[in-house]
Amino acid sequence: MSQVSHIPGNIMFDGPMATKGYPLNKMCYSFNNADGREAFLANEDDYCEKFGLSVEQKQAVKNRDVIAMLEAGGSIYYLAKFAGILGLNVQDVGGLQTGMTTDEFKAFLVQQGEK
Amino acid sequence: MAKILGGIATSHIPAIGVAMDKGLEQTPYWKDFFDAYPPVREWLYKQEPDIAVIFYNDHGLEFFHDRKPTFAIGAAAQYENADEGWGIAEIPPVTGETELSWHIVNQLIEHEFDITVCQEMKVDHGLTVPLTLMWPGHRYGHIKVIPIAINCERHPMPKPSRCFDFGKAIGDAIRSYSGNQKVVVFGTGGLSHQLDGQRAGFINKPFDLYCMDKIVNEPEALTKLTNFDLVEQAGSQGVELNMWLAMRGALQGMLTELHRSYHLPISNTGAGLQLLATSDAV
C-alpha cells in the first residue's frame, strides 16, 4: 500500500510510486547521455513509446506538467534531467509547480531566510 | 592505528559547482556562501589527511531504480564523474583507496551492516561538489576518497538512527585499521530543501539551525526523528541530514566545533557548513 502523504503539497516517492513511475524515470535516466537527449528532442513521441510510458505519463511529458509527472510516479532526481533538456533550472521548476514566475519563486526562497 | 581527525558537513548543491566553473564566487549572490569555506580549507591543509570518507547520495548517475542500494561503498582505485544530464561540468577522476575500503567492508559485515560493494562506481555532484569546494581548481588528486552512498531518494530509506549507527560502525572500522593514516569524514547534502511538488521551495531555517546545534554534542535529539519528520520539517530532500548523521556517528570523544555557517537560499536550499575536530586533530 502506498504511504499516504499527510504533508500538503508533498508527493511521497515510495515503492509503489517507483513501480508506477519506472518507465518515465527510466526514460529520464537515459538523459544522462547526450544520445538520449538528442533522440528525445528529435522525436518525443517515439522516445516515450520506446520506454513504454503510460498514457498519463506521455500526456504529462507532452504538457511539461511537472506535478502530473510526479503524480504519475516521476522522481524529481530524474525529472531534473528532463528539465535540463528544456533549459530549466530548479527555480524554474519550482515556479512551474507552485504557479509562480521564476522571479516570484526566487523571492519566495529569499523570504524564508527572513522568518 | 588510523585516526579520524574530524568531520566536515557541507552542502553539495549542483549550482555551487556551476558557480565555481563560471568563476562567480565573488558575485553578490555567492560571496557570503563561498567566503565561509577558506577557514575549513585551511584546517584541511594543515591537517594533511590521507583519506576522505565521503557520505553522499547518488542522484541517478550510478544507481537507477533497477538496482538501488540502501547503503553502498566504493572499493576502487579510481572513480569517474560523468555527464549528469543537465550541464554541470565533469571533473577529473577522483583517486580511490581499496585496502581501507575492504577493511571497512569486513568490519561492517561483522557488525551486521550488509553493505553493497562497488569496484566501479561513477560519483556524482553529491560527492564532487564537496571535493571541489574543499580543494578548488581540481587539486584533490592527492587525497584518497572512499565514497559511501546512502539512499535518500526513494522511501523506504534508512532511518536517521540507522544512518548514525552506520557511521559509528564505519568510524570504529577506521579506528581499528592498522596503519597511521589520517582520515577526515564528510557528511554532504542538506540542509532543508524541497524540489518537488506544490510544496517546492520549502526551507526551514529554524530547524536547520537546530540541527547544526544538536549535531555537535546531542545528536540523539536528531536520531530520534523519523524520515517522515525530516520530510515534514526539512522538506522532501531534507532527508539528506542522514549523511550528516552518518558523519557525526563516525566521530567519537570530545569534539571541538571549529566552524559553523549557514546561508539561505543557495539555489532552493538552506546551505550549511560545519567542521567538528576530534582530539586526534593537530
Task: Summarize the structure in words.
Chain B: Keywords: Dioxygenase, Oxidoreductase. Chain B: One of its GO terms (molecular function) is protocatechuate 4,5-dioxygenase activity. Chain B: Its EC number is 1.13.11.8. Chain B: It is an enzyme of class 1 (oxidoreductase). Chain B: This is Protocatechuate 4,5-dioxygenase. The complex is a heterodimer of chains A (about 120) and B (about 280). Chain A is mainly α and about 120 residues long. Chain A has a domain at about 15-85: Orthogonal Bundle (Protocatechuate 4,5-dioxygenase, Chain A), CATH 1.10.700.10. Chain A is built from eight helices and no strands. In chain A, helix 2 (about 35-40) packs across helix 3 (about 45-50). The radius of gyration of chain A is 15 Å and the shape is globular. The N and C termini of chain A lie far apart (about 35 Å). In chain A, about 35% of the residues are buried. The mean pLDDT of chain A is about 95. Chain B is α/β, with parallel strands linked by helices. Chain B has a single domain, classed as LigB-like (Protocatechuate 4,5-dioxygenase, Chain B, 3-Layer(aba) Sandwich). Helix content of chain B is about 35%, strand content about 20%. Chain B is built from ten helices and ten strands. Chain B has helices spanning about 15-20, 30-35, 40-45, 100-110, 125-135, 160-175, 205-215, 220-225, 225-235, 240-250; strands at about 5-10, 50-55, 70-75, 80, 95, 115-120, 145-150, 180-190, 255-265, 270-275. Chain B has an eight-stranded mixed sheet, with helices on both faces. Chain B has a two-stranded antiparallel sheet with strand order 4-5. In chain B, a hairpin with a 2-residue loop joins strand 9 (about 255-265) and strand 10. In chain B, helix 1 (about 15-20) packs across helix 5 (about 125-135). The model of chain B has no long low-confidence stretch (mean pLDDT about 95). The chains are: A mainly alpha (about 120), B alpha/beta (about 280). The interface of A and B includes residues 75 and 77 of A.
